[in-house]
Design a protein that fits this description.
The protein is α/β, with parallel strands linked by helices and about 130 residues long. It has a single domain, classed as 5'-nuclease (Rossmann fold), CATH 3.40.50. The protein contains five helices and four strands, in the order βααβαβαβα. It has a four-stranded parallel β-sheet, sandwiched between helices. The radius of gyration is 15 Å and the shape is globular.
Amino acid sequence: MNNKEEKNLAFVDGQNLYRGTTEDDPKWKVDLFKFRIYLNKKYKIEKAYYFLGFLNEKYQYLYDKIQEAGFILKFREHNSMMEGKKKGNVDTNIIFDVMERMYEKEDFNKIVIVAGDGDYKILVDFLIKKEKF
């Protein structure tokens, strides 16, 4: 089997995943360890990036658990005027990260996006067109 076939990447919108599984009844508790195993078995995910809105020391336990489950944490950068204000919105970070990999011609086969809204439609359409989704 070609190595490139197994070099797939996942991009998880952490806020979308959390809200999508906890805001409606029945609420789901996502076991991140099992979810990471699932991504690997189902989609052959080599690297899984988990995007969160901002770094806050009081959530260090959560960050540790996400990393222990095998995800690579990525935080949205904010300018100093935004510190302390509610802002998750990692959509642009995920889109930029994917597009940068495409531009740099990084060696991967497919991209998997885990999100719960339509903010990624244009990106998904592009990835489908390029046979990367």
